[in-house]
Design brief:
Number of domains of chain A: 1
CATH architecture of chain B: Sandwich
Helix content of chain B: 10-25%
Strand content of chain A: 15-25%
Shape of chain A: globular
CATH superfamily of chain B: Cupredoxins -  blue copper proteins
Oligomer: heterodimer
Largest interface: A-B, 29 and 24 residues
CATH architecture of chain A: 4-Layer Sandwich
Strand content of chain B: 35-45%
Number of helices of chain B: 1
Structural class of chain B: mainly beta
CATH topology of chain A: Purple Acid Phosphatase, chain A, domain 2
CATH class of chain A: Alpha Beta
Shape of chain B: globular
CATH class of chain B: Mainly Beta
């Protein structure tokens, strides 16, 4: 099945993206564009939100619901409305039913459909029981699923279940087998968007920012000409392009976490002042061209007008 | 007290007198801070009561597979308590940050 489009090797693009930066991926090489409006009408437009942590109430953000609402309001204010939203996990802080309720109410104010995956904060309280009760209908295994929209194939992976001592994010053999079957009939020209909470690629092993068996999933994706991998978990924007695969981690809407290696632990950046907080939170605007086109990503902070 | 109850009381009295005094359980505390368990390895006597106290800024859990323990999420200042009765080595980890590991050694 591997048609051998293959990787062009690690192209050495790992960038901390600033606000409003737009990348297009062409031939595996990222190129800076002026704005997301560069996309043509023949496209699918959607928005990634992540790590809303409803219930978090400590420094540097004592009201994670308010900043999540700001994120949704930014989306509502977009001149070109997205088709839907993707939430890449840690919807809640402690998996409490009332936290899920609040998150759903705020998200619903967008008037848009939201496709969810869980983060470990949505899963750890009860091994995913309440998350699956709310969002697991129609999904496979421990909540994974796929859907198609406008010729783009979306894959929602769960890598916060089945943690093992000393390990990292885990997909598991069952999910990888399902992914293999799911992708088997797809043309290599089908744009693929993958969402998973913990980065599928290794960012910092000491902080657990890695998926143990992420390479097995990525091996299944490498034959495709346009793959966008959207992760959350690390509360900051980091991008990398490898072959035809663009990796992207999103801002949180609740609190920032430090860059790898810059702090003793990956906990919240408590010292961020209130007037700076929203410049370190944000959303990601995405445009995927139908067919074999480039993926455009624009990160917006909540401080932007 | 009826005669019947007196007979019962006299019957059980020797059992109470002869019982081994209950040893006051020792209590140790393992703190969770900066995404780590401190002390990371702790050696205790059988019967020790251990309090895992989260002093970090994010929630953590305590999973002890050999004791079938899987705590709820412990928010800041939350704690989980367990009695370590049997000798042995009990490895444990945080169920939402599995790179966080620790070990309790229970020995006489």
């Amino acid at each position: 099945m591997d048609r051998g489009i293959g990787r062009r090797g690690l192209l050495g693009c790992m960038a901390f993206a600033g606000a409003g930066v737009v990348w297009t991926v062409t031939g595996g090489v990222p190129r800076l564009l002026g704005s997301a409006e560069a996309a043509t009408a023949d496209r699918l437009h959607f928005v990634q939100i992540s790590d809303s942590h409803i219930g978090f109430d400590k420094d540097p953000n004592h009201d994670a619901t308010a900043t999540f609402q700001t994120a949704i309001d930014r989306i509502k204010d977009m001149k070109q409305q997205p088709a839907f939203l993707l939430h890449t996990g840690d919807i809640t802080h402690l998996s409490k039913p009332e936290e899920f309720d609040t998150a759903a109410q705020v998200a619903a104010s967008s008037g848009l459909q939201v496709h969810y995956i869980p983060g470990e904060h949505d899963w750890g309280g009860d091994n995913g029981a309440f998350y699956l009760e709310r969002y697991g209908k129609g999904t496979k295994g421990q909540g994974w699923y796929a859907f198609d929209q406008e010729g783009v194939h979306f894959v929602a992976l769960i890598n916060v279940a089945g943690f093992k001592a000393g390990g990292f994010g885990t997909l598991g053999a069952d999910q990888i087998a399902w992914l293999k079957d799911d992708l088997a009939g797809k043309s290599a020209s089908t744009p693929i968007v993958v969402m998973a909470h913990i980065p599928l690629w290794s960012i910092d092993e000491g902080w657990g920012w890695k998926t143990d068996d992420g390479d097995q999933a990525l091996a299944l994706l490498k034959r495709f000409g346009s793959v966008t991998v959207l992760n959350g978990h690390i509360h900051q924007v980091i991008q990398k392009v490898e072959g035809n695969v663009a990796f992207h981690t999103a801002y949180s809407t609740s609190f920032p976490q430090p860059a790898p290696g810059t702090a003793p632990s990956p906990g919240p950046m408590k010292s961020v002042q209130a007037d700076k907080l929203r410049s370190m939170l944000g959303i990601t605007d995405l445009v995927v061209k139908r067919g074999h086109g480039p993926a455009l990503l624009t990160d917006h902070t909540l401080a932007e007008a | 007290m009826s005669a019947r109850n007196w007979i019962f009381a006299l019957a059980v009295l020797p059992l109470c007198i002869g019982a081994t005094p209950v040893r006051a359980a020792e209590t140790e505390t393992v703190t969770i801070d900066n995404f780590s368990f401190k002390p990371n390895v702790i050696t205790v006597k059988p019967g020790t009561h251990i309090i895992f106290k989260n002093q970090d800024d994010l929630p953590h859990t305590v999973v002890i597979p050999d004791m079938k323990v899987n705590s709820s999420m412990l928010d800041t200042d939350g704690s989980y308590e367990a009695d370590f009765e049997k000798p042995g080595e009990f490895k444990y980890f945080c169920g939402i940050h599995p790179m966080m590991t620790g070990k309790v050694i229970v020995a006489e």
